[in-house]
């Protein structure tokens, strides 16, 4: 399940939301109802991608990213 992290640019609240493909256009802050939110990459779905370096993509090309 694609769970994304968002951060509200108005009240700075961070929250997670389960988002299905194509349904991330109506995300709003649960605190202030603002739609001025920024998406962050979920740590669970991109785990280790930042620490493995630049050559990591060659060995992980079969992960089926769709
Ligand atoms: Zn907010």
Question: What does this protein structure show overall?
Answer:
- This protein is mainly beta and 66 residues long.
- It has one domain (1-47): Rubrerythrin, domain 2 (Single Sheet).
- It contains no helices and 3 strands.
- It has strands at 3-8, 14-18, 37-40.
- A 3-stranded antiparallel beta sheet has the order 2-1-3, with no helix packed on it.
- A hairpin with a 5-residue loop joins strand 1 and strand 2 (14-18).
- It is elongated and about 40 Å long.
- The two termini are 13 Å apart.
- The mean pLDDT is 75.
- It binds zinc ion.
- Zinc ion binds at residues 8, 10-11, 13, 29, 31-32, 34.
Tag the structure with descriptive keywords.
66 residues; 3-stranded antiparallel sheet; 3 strands; binds zinc ion
Determine the N-to-C terminus distance. 13 Å
Give the SSE string. EEE
Note the quaternary state here. single chain
What is the tally of beta strands?
A: 3
Short précis:
This protein is mainly beta. It has strands at about 5-10, 15-20, 35-40.
Q: How are the elements arranged and paired?
A:
Elements: E1 3-8, E2 14-18, E3 37-40
Antiparallel strand pairs: 1-2, 1-3
The protein binds zinc ion (ZN).
